[in-house]
Amino acid sequence: MRRSIYLFIILFNVGAFAFSQKITLNLKEVPLHEALRTVSDKANVDFFYSDNELDIDKIINVDFVDTDVEVIVSSIIGAQYKLEKQYDGLFLIVPVKNAAQAFSVIGAVTDETGQPLPGVTVLIEETKQGVSTDFDGKYRVIVSKGQTLVFSYVGFKSQTVVFDGQKEINISLEEDISALEEVIVTGIVERKKETYTGAVNTVTGEELKAIGNVNVIESLKTLDPSFIVLENNLQGSNPNVLPNIEVRGQTSISNEDLRDEFGADPNSPLFILDGFETNLRTIVDLDMNRVASITILKDAASTALYGSKAANGVVVVETIKPKEGQIQLTYTGDFTVEIPDLTDYNLMNSSEKLEYERLAGMWTYYINDMGPQIRLDSIYNSKLAEVRRGVDTYWLSEPVRTAVSQRHAIAGSGGTEALRFNAGFNFRDGQGVMKGSGRDTWGGNVDLIYRRGKVNIANRLYVNGFEAKESNYGSFSDYATANPYYRKYDEFGEITRYLDDSVRGLLVNPLYQTLLNSSDQTVGFSILNNLGIIVDLTSKFRLQGGVQIRKETTEREAFVSPEDPIFDDSSFFEKGTYTNTQTENFSYMANAMLVYNNVFADKHSVTVNLRTEIEEQNNESYGTRAVGFPAGANPNPSFSFSYQTDAKPSYSTRKYRRNNVMGSVNYAFDNRYLLDLNYRLDGSTAFGSNEKYSPFWSAGFGWNIHKERGFNSNVINLLRLKQTFGYTGNQNLGSVASTSVYSYGNTVNILGVGTQLTTFANANLEWQRTFDSNLGLDIAMFNRRLDGRFNLFKKNTDPLVVPVSLASSTGLVSYPLNVGRLEVNGFEAIVNYKIINNIRKDFMWRVGLTGSVIRMEYDDFGNKLQNLDEENIDSGSLVRYRDGYSPNDIWAVPSLGIDPATGQEVFLKKNGQTSFDYDYSDEVVVGNTRPDVEGVFSNFVSLKGFTLGVNIRYRFGGEQFNNALFNKVENIGYFGVVNNQDRRALYDRWQQPGDVAKFKDIADTDAVPISSRFVQDENVLIGESINLGYRTTDKKWVKALGMNSFRFNAYMNNIFRASSVLAERGIDYPFARSVSFSINATF
């Protein structure tokens, strides 16, 4: 019967065979006809063949995972047969004419140490058919004499063997160090890591997702010791507040007087997205699932490519590029539960608070007068009765919640070799732990890559939006100061306007504002298009260029209800405010680059880049503020009575332009001796009109010691020494001084409307330039089980741009000048060791340690910033601008503690004498807020698709000024006694002669100056990330659901924090701990 069908069907015109279906097949010692029947059942196809021509009883063994049916069947039937498709689901197996005799070959593939390598591809070069090795590294393949077997595996050098009748072919693959050394993506040029001298660190999107699923910034800080996210003790985990970031310390003075409203944090790194500059907000809101890799450029050799913007480091983000092939759909769902972290609040309960008030003298009349004392006793007794009834209100739980957020993302990619695409959409419903707060984001992208001949065109379109809401519960500090012996509601279950009006003024119920229609929300929209073109002129020359167009708009509306208690003392026509602020930013950027690459005499590798770039930014901001609303009015400005008194709408505009030319040379001799040279000339409108251009350059030298001919170590696999130095700059300050700006006054006389100077330009203001040097060592040992990267660096910014105070008669607050310099010295290390690395059993256990040490110092200020120092003293700031000292130094008068006899503080003067009198001139450095060393301990285990990662951050050394001690243990004024305080105000303050106490007399309500008593040594351990994951591609249930792969991750971030300092954290908005889950499926 089969022969008849065969003869009938052979008459039809047959076409080329093409399978797209993939199956998993594992058969041991089965006949060929049974194997074909199994494939037929799994793939839902039929095979027709002649029993006389095909050895259907031949015993075979196969083991394929997620493999094309064509590859599986071709391996089963052997090279002397071929498949021919008749129509969908029907295939012929026919002999190949004049086919050479086929043989079955077995063998095993191992690495250099003899460890089996599973998953090695064994390919017949002539037929492009092949198999993969099993978990024991073994394989079996049908091959004819004269055919070539190619053995290939990621991270190892491929080997070829011409078959000449051998029954067994065993292969030992050699590790390919150059394959393991990835390409460094700098955002402008690409460099082979093996021959690059810059200090960089690249992490993949998978590594980022292994830490957490919040945003790339939160994950990146765990993976690199130089990338520090500073804790914001005021705003905590507020999703609408951007983080403060430093890479290798600071290069500028952080002062708002330096920045216009469009400027960025002067110590924040530059962010690059797919080759073009972007801002921190875009990176924070970026969908993590789209990220392919992030590279941090740290030293001059790597950052000088960005010249005047790179002194704080550069963070280069590359998104996933479209891949050719069938359309593949990917869905990712992220779910996060955030819990407010209130463990650092050490507040009194109701009985403790009332007792504290009694000891502090709140319930004792200041003179011997029975009438007022009787009234105070009555009030006290009523509150004591409430305490004894069990009233102990926990106010901290009122404004917070367990926040649940979710993000959903779907993406599709595919295409041909000529045209590839990637399109996606994501949405995140993000809640904050303060009730009513949150940030919802959405984004879409379309990526197209067209390749024809020597031309490659790529276009990336991004559209993003957000809606941010602040909590209508007010500041968290309002609840941290509310007295626990007050009830939240009255006897009718209603929220009252005031908690108490019996003594020392009205006490507002912080919950009252939740009844009002106050609101604060911001909406934003942005569209960005990046176009890139690459033309391969010859095999050695390439021309490439790009254009970016970007537009952003934001609008903030903030309404404070006229019924808010803050307007109690305001007139009827001033109750309630409405603020509207709109910003619009438009920018374009264009660049062109010529690339030359060549290898001479197989040893001299040269890459030369010549590049030019232009950019223009146009920023506009418009704001209005209306005041006076009727009770119950909606936040509609037309309901207001007027604009704010003596005020008018605000409007700001800025046009910023820059251009540059850049040249770079990368040279390597025999991959042993390395040289990187960069030169860039920048022009900008950000500085003085007489200082429009500034040069920046760098040089880097490297030595691959392990490449030396006499270096034959079986222990050391990689040993690279690098030295770099050069100049970079900083333009994050904004356009601070290019042009003097005048504004119209509010009065008119016979000469007309007057004008006033609002910004005084400094035409000779120089650029901030930072000299950066770096000495680096990369090492890998024991077959790369141990690897480490060590860098010793120094940065010197000279001159700084500093706002110098002016006389009040000028009408200006400050004037930007070049004065002083800032020097940073530091060391960083990244070390990983694979305790177990069993490829055969798919088992790996790796431990790691990262760490950084940074010290900073000012110099060359002289007494030019004396006015700034005096302003800091008056405002209670701990910062001083003095030569030889650090921006992180804590300045205060040394304290010898509390005198047991009097309860007063004893100060140590500079002359060594002691005194009860505080003198600002006695202040010295009493601590430094930067840790002596900071980094992360990591532990990662991978076993057969399961992963477990634990990352613990440590901070050792350094000091902290404890504001809780300063403001809630002492420094509690006459009216502050009514607020809840830290428990140490009751238990650790002096009460009577002879007491040995840490803090002053409990009845002392006078203002307390800053002294060293409030500075404490700090050591911290933080559970930054704990992750459990699972990924599979070959499970039956995965295929049954139509998926190609499935991944699940569970995270705990910031789950614990142990500190030697007990201080309140998250003053206006609390910090949070999070538990998250993520699922990812590809179809």
TrEMBL record:
Residues 193-314 form the TonB-dependent receptor plug domain. It is a multi-pass membrane protein. Pfam families: CarbopepD_reg_2 (PF13715), Plug (PF07715). InterPro entries: Beta-barrel_TonB_sf, CarboxyPept-like_regulatory, Plug_dom, Plug_dom_sf, TonB-dep_OMP_SusC/RagA, TonB-dep_OMP_SusC/RagA_CS, TonB-dep_rcpt-like. GO terms for cellular component: cell outer membrane. It is found in: Cell outer membrane. Keywords: Cell outer membrane, Membrane, Transmembrane, Transmembrane beta strand, Transport. Belongs to the TonB-dependent receptor family. This is SusC/RagA family TonB-linked outer membrane protein.
